[in-house]
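Researcher: I'd like a structural prediction for the single chain below. Treat it as a standalone chain; there are no partners to consider.
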Amino acid sequence: MTDNGQNYVTLNNGAKIPQFGLGVYMINGDNATEEAVSEALKLGYWHIDTAHAYQNERGVGRAVKKNGINRHNIWITSKLWPSDYGEDKTPKAIDKMLNRLDTDYIDLLLLHQQFGDYIGAWKAMEKAVKEGKVRSIGISNFSGKRLDNLLANAEVKPAVMQVELHPYYQEKELRQRMAQYDTKFEAWYPIGHGDPKLINEPVFTKLAKKYGKTNVQIILRWHIQKGFIVFPKSTNPEHLKQNIDVFDFKLTPDEMQAIDALDKHQRYFTMSLEAQKSAFSSFKPAD
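Model: Treating it as a single chain, here is the predicted structure.
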């Protein structure tokens, strides 16, 4: 589905999510975030991806309010940190998130990491959907037995799975696993954490020349045609313009297949589960 130059993806609950957005991970502070989001909104970015752990939700909320765009036209995604997981803790955390974002509802709420009482948190998120505080719910960075456990206990199946996803790491097995639930995939590190080796692959250079685009735009277009939801982070106005300028051309099936063939099962985030658990359990985002 396309509208105003933006693609939309229909989730398993019928909601239509803008396929291209802005990620605000590692934008430092609310003021810088407000500035970046304001610029992105002017360019037609209707989807903003933030998280409690990013410590910049207030900046997102201020930008949405300040720019005077109808709230229903903007999709806001945020994520709960494990310190907020639990059937009793999560409802309070959601209310605080709504306050930080200065909004009546969150379009998509994700469990950020697969640690802590994620089952209790999921049950609370399901309740928040029934209460109208959250429209859609999903997960980020879940795999293996923890994913199996969540799916076995979930009344509402995840609308979205957010994971590292790019031409070098295409998550084919996980995508196949989640296809039965019609769970859509969102890509973080969509251009491989800016790895020059990935970006300068000959296939991207060749296609960039053919279509009059940059190598990064070719990679982002591949994501769009695969049906992935992407939100590359940038605070540079020129990069913001370039990133979203991927809707006026289309890669051929053969070109898509050539990019598919680049899959190396190569991740850029390589911290072990045990190391993640240790690191993440010691971090508690401020309210």
